[in-house]
Design goal:
- The chain has 517 residues and is mostly beta strands.
- Helix content is 6%, strand content 58%.
- It contains 6 helices and 25 strands.
- It has a 17-stranded antiparallel β-sheet. It has a 4-stranded mixed β-sheet with strand order 1-5-6-4.
- Strand 8 and strand 9 form a beta hairpin.
- The longest helix is centred in the N-terminal third of the chain and has 10 residues.
- The two termini are 33 Å apart.
């Protein structure tokens, strides 16, 4: 999290699409900058799990000891309520989110932007707990080449290479990585602490510069991953009555992305499109789960800068998600299709010298679940150079699927298909308030403290029930709410190149249904 005044002035935010610096945005955003990314990449270059786990109020929850799968819990809510974007493209939702944290390496990232709480105006449903936007490095005239080879004491080896350069009319960036993890059982209890894994990522991107104001870029994101965990003897091929359990995950991920952007004196037009295909096969003794997900995303966005004090965004977008399950047993397949069209507008306006207001409204129409109206407001108050305060709130929603943390723990075995007519989407209302104070003293020290308070109420939460009569499970909407509230405290003391962080998070999440609390 960047709170130092000198650094704040250099951090331009991409997630809100207004090209403002972080200190002039009413939406509370935390940024992990390139300096911190470099440190985390050196510590773990295979995935982004470590860099997110050290952010206050964020927990990396391990869903499977066998596969090492992780989900991002923000402010006490399950990982399915966190939306992960890459340069604003939603590539990691639904079924494709199952192993995403384990398959996103950090070396090609410029910064990571994190919004806690619902932010559905610009990006639609799914971001009830928060939003993580991974911003990649863009080519510059000066070429950039990075290479890294890591060897861990836990028998993991990874190699990464990144190259980017901008020429007169063209540009390119290339990122490739490979990771090999040997089965690791440090306590010799016979069960792997870290699964055997091989992962390859290949992400080229090409740029065309028609003139200084018009750009087209297109790229490909791919990931190939095989990981096997469980009993060490089974991994070695020694299956017996006592040694039978293993979990094998084989996945392939392909995603294309296109961005066209034209900027004139006071307005910007952009068009985005992405298509992704994710295939995963999960094998445990006597059971196989296999399926593939195809997703599409298209967006047209207009940005208007009426004057130095006001920004407007108008846009429409279309989300498409289709899951197809391979039939591997007598149980019904859990296929589904989500088709959603949305329109949105957002305004950010300076009110005098001390206040900045941001308001937005989004309307989505889903072909199965109908209309969702999502307002959002935020206000920034800056009485002087040392104090900044923000308050905001928004509505959110998430369409139901079987892909939850509870289902992942069961390997999706025995879970009945969702019936649209019997199911309601999950909806939320939430808000947060924070105040930030920063100062400098003795010409060398800077000190900052940020205090955040938050509250989120979730309705129609999906609950997995056991169906004893059919020896299986089914989903239904909870008959009460989920309430998450708490606070976060972040303190930073800086002296030259040395930084001391002190962070504290308190999370109080209550399940107010089934006559329990």
């Amino acid at each position: 999290m960047e709170e130092d005044q000198e650094e704040l002035e250099e951090v331009t935010i991409a997630t809100t699409r207004s090209s403002r610096t972080i200190e002039d945005i009413p939406t509370r955003i935390e940024v992990i900058t390139s300096e911190e990314l470099g440190e985390k990449a050196a510590m773990n270059s295979s995935n982004i799990g470590m860099l997110l786990s050290e952010t206050t109020g964020v927990q990396m929850q391990q869903l499977s000891l066998s596969s090492g799968n992780l989900s991002i819990r923000i402010q006490g809510l399950d990982g399915r309520y966190t939306q992960i974007l890459k340069d604003g493209f939603p590539l990691y939702g639904g079924f494709a989110g199952g192993l995403s944290i384990m398959q996103i390496p950090p070396l090609d990232l410029k910064q990571v932007e994190l919004i806690k709480g619902s932010n559905s105006t610009l990006y639609g449903g799914g971001a009830i707990a928060g939003l993580v936007n991974l911003v990649t490095i863009k080519p510059e005239k000066k070429s950039e080449l990075s290479a890294m080879l890591n060897q861990t004491s836990a028998l993991g080896t990874s190699g990464n290479i990144f190259y980017a350069q901008k020429f007169e009319k063209t540009g390119l960036s290339f990122y490739g990585s490979a990771n090999n993890q040997i089965a690791y059982d440090p306590d010799n209890d016979g069960f792997l602490n870290i699964p055997r894994a091989q992962t390859i990522n290949f992400n080229p991107k090409f740029y065309l510069y028609f003139n200084p104001n018009t750009e087209l870029n297109f790229g490909l994101n791919t990931s190939f991953d095989e990981r096997t965990g469980g009993d060490m003897q089974v991994i070695k091929g020694n299956v017996s009555e006592e040694n039978v359990f293993s979990e094998e995950n084989i996945s392939k991920r392909y995603a294309t992305r296109i961005l066209f952007k034209h900027t004139s004196k006071n307005r910007t037009f952009s068009f985005k499109n992405s298509f992704s295909y994710f295939d995963r096969k999960l094998v445990i003794p006597d059971y196989i789960f296999q399926g593939n997900q195809m997703t599409g995303f298209s967006e047209i966005l207009f940005n208007f800068h009426g004057n130095e004090k006001s920004d407007w965004q108008y846009g429409v977008n279309h989300y498409y998600e289709r899951f197809i399950e391979e039939k591997t047993d007598s149980f019904p397949v859990r296929d589904y299709t989500h088709n959603t069209i949305g329109g949105f507008t957002q305004n950010t306006t300076n009110i005098g010298s001390k206040f900045i207001f941001e308001g937005g409204l989004r309307t989505d129409y889903n072909f199965d679940y109908g209309v969702f109206i999502l307002p959002r407001i935020a206000l920034l108050y800056k009485p002087n150079r040392k104090i900044i305060s923000r308050i905001g709130g928004a509505l959110g929603y998430k369409l139901p699927t079987i892909f939850t943390e509870d289902a992942e723990k069961l390997y999706f075995k025995g879970i009945e298909p969702l019936i649209v007519s019997n199911m309601n989407p999950e909806t939320s209302v939430g808000g947060n308030f924070d105040i930030n104070y920063r100062t400098s003293f003795l010409d060398k020290f800077t000190f900052s403290v940020n205090q955040l308070f938050y509250l989120t109420r979730l309705k129609n939460s999906l609950v997995l029930r056991e169906n004893s009569s059919q020896n299986g499970y089914f989903y239904e909407n909870a008959d009460g709410d989920v309430l998450s509230n708490g606070f976060e405290t972040n303190v930073k003391l800086t002296y030259g190149d040395f930084k001391l962080y002190v962070n504290y998070a308190f999370t109080n999440t209550q399940l107010l249904y089934d006559n329990i609390n």
